[in-house]
Amino acid sequence: MFLNYRMRGVFTLALSWFVLPSYADDSIAIWSYNDCINHARTNNLTLRKSILSEESAAISLEKAQGEWQPSLDFGTNQGYSNAPWSNGNSNAYTSNYNLNASWTVWDGGKRESAIRRGKTDVERSRYATDNTLRNIRTEILSAYINILYNKETVAVNTELAEVSRAQADRAKQMMESGKISLVDYQQLATQAEQDNYNVVSATAQLNTARMQLKKLLELGIDSSFDVMPYNFSEQEVLAELPPIDESYQLALDTDALMRYNELSVDIADEDIKAARASGYPQLSLGAGVGTGYYSNSAGGWGTQMKQGFNENISLSVSVPIFDRKSTKTAVAQAKVSKLSSQLDIESRKIEIAQTLESWYIDMESSRTRYTSGLQSLKSAKLSDELANEKFKVGYVEPTELLQTHSALIEAQRELLQAKYMSVLARKMVEFLRTGDVTL
Known about the structure:
Layout: E1 29-31, H1 33-43, H2 45-66, E2 71-82, E3 91-106, H3 110-176, H4 182-216, E4 225-227, H5 234-238, H6 244-254, H7 256-277, E5 282-294, H8 301-307, E6 310-318, H9 326-392, H10 398-434
Parallel strand pairs: 1-4
Antiparallel strand pairs: 2-3, 3-5, 5-6
Helix pairs in contact: 1-3, 2-3, 3-4, 3-7, 3-10, 6-9, 6-10, 7-9, 9-10
């Protein structure tokens, strides 16, 4: 693996002095970072659930708007009765028919508040989806770069394994000619086997990294793909970051979760208004028509239906006097919810500030490590090349050769880590500033 990264999974790309190996044949699709994002937009399950929440919020808004409409219902009752001790016909058939309408004239403002709340919740749901997508994009970026890092690790380890095998073969010839001992040869042969194992291990980590990206993309077990290689120049790695104060302000302005929390405060305000409205009088208007039929009454069905036809209209007022503290507690709960959302805003501000500062620290540290690593690698390569040439003609002990070889491996690893931690920090700052990132 590479580094721990706060989300920290991973990183890498090709160093200019290494040749990227080709892992993909013509039958395997090559995906760019944008390809991965576009696929995740329509296939990631977490994102799809968030989109469903948006639809649910829109339905709730439609319901709130429908509260302004009057209600209309039709009802009928068909019955059969028996009066065994009556003087007349003991059996009777009854029916009645009613059409009723009602409309709430005033409810203390709860409907208006519910509509405003619904509109705000629809907007908030969109920001929740946007925040989910932002998280997915950073996770995909992390996994994507992790694949690139592991591919580069395989390339480096393969090159080192080839060098080690050549040294072991040369050592065998020298042992057979009596120039070095069996112990010296075994040391170099062991190093060659270790380098071969490093290739196998790096390949396994590469496969694991691919699996992690497949999981984020919701790809099946039978899918095959590879990522498009990217190469960052030395200038990009060492370039200065913009001022942190500027980045912080931009991050606050573009952060989806921050906007979500702000809208949560607005929703809590509407909940407070709606809760208070429960303590106000309510005014309702009702109207209806009805008729009925009774088989034991004089007149046929048509006559009774006509004579029994009636109309009514009513105006009702409801004044709450004592509601067992339901209004008071509802207002208190809404206020607590508002305070909680305000604390979420402050917490998010602190989180963004700490995250930015951490990335800036990582960036500065990585730039220093990278600059130092360039010199260390240059020195290690020269020492390794010189020792290898001397070994070919028998002027260097195998122990010294192993030491220079180990120093070269360490220098390569250090430079790779420094380079891609710098790349990752830069990309994360870019994403926090703009809400977007490109490779």
